[in-house]
Automatic annotation (TrEMBL):
This is UDP-N-acetylmuramoylalanine--D-glutamate ligase. Residues 107-286 form the Mur ligase central domain. It catalyses: UDP-N-acetyl-alpha-D-muramoyl-L-alanine + D-glutamate + ATP = UDP-N-acetyl-alpha-D-muramoyl-L-alanyl-D-glutamate + ADP + phosphate + H(+). Pathway: Cell wall biogenesis; peptidoglycan biosynthesis. It comes from the Bacteria. It is found in: Cytoplasm. Residues 308-421 form the Mur ligase C-terminal domain. GO terms for cellular component: cytoplasm.
Length: 444
């Protein structure tokens, strides 16, 4: 009996444990932190051995294969010991893909991947396909494979999940864009991170597809230097594309193998230039999957968007409050500021992942009237923008951030929470940060 050890007892870990058990592995789950009550119950119910708040080496280093949760870095001591012993350390996606015949659509990128994943899922589901949603969002992919429920999966894949693949290959891969993020996990070498993203296509064949942003510098550079077997389908908001997607005046056009699809941009529920890109990528998948054009049209116009991503919360005294807590890097904040059309009070800050704020400078000059720094260490933000805006205030909780913002606004302004940073200094995660923002706005 093969021994499967799982590091991390969260959604992906427990899902993998259930699939492993079903497939006849001797399964052990080990979490250095505390396993949440609901996951503990699942493990006990399924008679799966587990431990938390420790890693017992004797029970881990005897594994045949190890599934590592994406949150655990490669430099964790236990991971280094496993690698030294040549024990394969893989991701949930890699483990689960060998047990399903389903077609997967894999979506990665520094920004826009959640929106693109949700929209792609929405298009395929509305189109009548038997489709599941997993990866970085929703229910664990491995768990769904164990229940054997779907013919198709739309998977949001982080670079960490892609680092742990060996044989996994999506039939359709989407790379939304690449900008510096998580560099702390890639020895602060941007090229390592770019290579990581492109692992999504490494096992693809001529029968598969890679959809990518033709306006994205890092993607174009990589594609010039490396060969890809998959059929390339680019999308662009700045140039005409023969086989792919582009914007012409106010129309989104998609041509794939002489199949044409057109839609006016004002019929698409998502707003902003970056969202046109997300819509192009998702619609390209729907075209490849032969979803009816009328269904695609309706689905693009009724899509609800993603929570904590440019989410309009409330308009109070003609001031619009927007929750973009999911913007955990500079590039995401760039998109948010770029889509502002009124004077903006910007709430920014948190745990900095090696951010370079200089690319935001033109947008801040043009659109931002005041900045509220919401973090424990705001030095870099103050150095970058202190001389650019008239008003800059530091706060250390969401109540003060929202109430300060209210006093800085006048009719017609926007208050934008788009932190450009991780949230762990003051909040549990970006969802907690976004929920606190919404609560405070509703209390105004």
């Amino acid at each position: 009996m093969k021994r499967l050890v799982i590091l991390g007892g969260g959604e992906s870990g427990v899902g993998t444990a259930i699939l492993g058990k079903k497939k006849g592995y001797d399964v052990f789950v080990s979490d250095f932190g505390k396993i949440k009550e609901n996951y503990r119950e699942v493990l006990i119910l399924n008679e799966i051995a587990w431990e938390d708040e420790q890693h017992t080496e004797a029970l881990i280093l005897n594994a045949d294969v190890v599934m590592k949760s994406p949150g655990i870095p490669d430099k964790a001591p236990i991971v280094k010991k496993l690698v030294a012993k040549n024990i394969p350390v893989i991701s949930e996606i890699e483990f689960a893909c060998q047990f399903t015949e389903a077609i997967t659509i894999g979506i990665t990128g520094s920004n826009g991947k959640t929106t693109t994943t949700m929209l792609t899922y929405h298009l395929l589901k509305q189109g009548g396909l038997n489709v599941g949603l997993g990866g970085n969002i929703g229910k664990s992919f491995a768990w769904q494979v164990a229940d054997d429920a779907y013919d198709y999966y739309v998977l949001e894949l982080s670079s960490f999940q892609l680092d742990g693949i060996v044989h996994y290959k999506p039939h359709v891969a989407i790379l939304t864009n690449i900008s510096p993020d998580h560099l702390d996990r890639y020895e602060y070498d941007y090229q390592n991170y770019i290579n990581s993203k492109f692992r999504i296509t490494m096992n693809q064949t001529e029968a598969d597809y890679l959809i990518y942003d033709a306006d994205d510098e890092a993607s174009n550079e990589w594609l010039k230097k490396n060969t890809v077997k998959a059929q390339l389908i680019p999308f662009s908001v700045s140039k005409m594309i023969e086989n792919g997607a582009f914007l012409k005046d106010n129309t989104m056009e998609i041509n794939i193998n002489n199949e044409e699809f057109l839609i006016e941009t004002d019929q698409i529920a998502l707003e902003g230039k970056h969202n046109m890109k997300n819509a192009m990528a998702a619609t390209t998948v729907a075209q490849l999957m032969k979803i009816r054009k009328q269904t695609i049209r309706e689905s693009l116009s009724n899509f609800q968007g993603v929570e904590h991503r440019l989410e309009k919360v409330l308009k109070i005294q003609n001031v619009q409050y927007i929750n973009d807590s999911k913007a955990t890097n500079v590039n995401a904040a760039f998109f948010a500021l770029d889509s502002m059309t009124t004077p903006t009070v910007w709430i920014v800050g948190g745990v900095d992942k090696g951010n370079d704020y200089s690319e935001l400078m033109p947008l801040v000059r043009e659109k931002v009237k005041a900045i509220i720094c919401l973090g424990i260490d705001n030095k870099k933000i103050i150095e970058a923008f202190g001389n650019v805006v008239d008003l800059m205030v530091e706060v250390d909780n969401m109540h003060d951030a929202v109430n300060t913002a209210k006093h800085m606004t006048e009719k017609g302004d926007t208050v934008l929470l788009s932190p450009a940073c991780a949230s762990f200094d003051l909040f549990e995660n970006y969802e907690d940060r976004g929920n606190q923002f919404k609560r405070e706005v509703k209390n105004l």
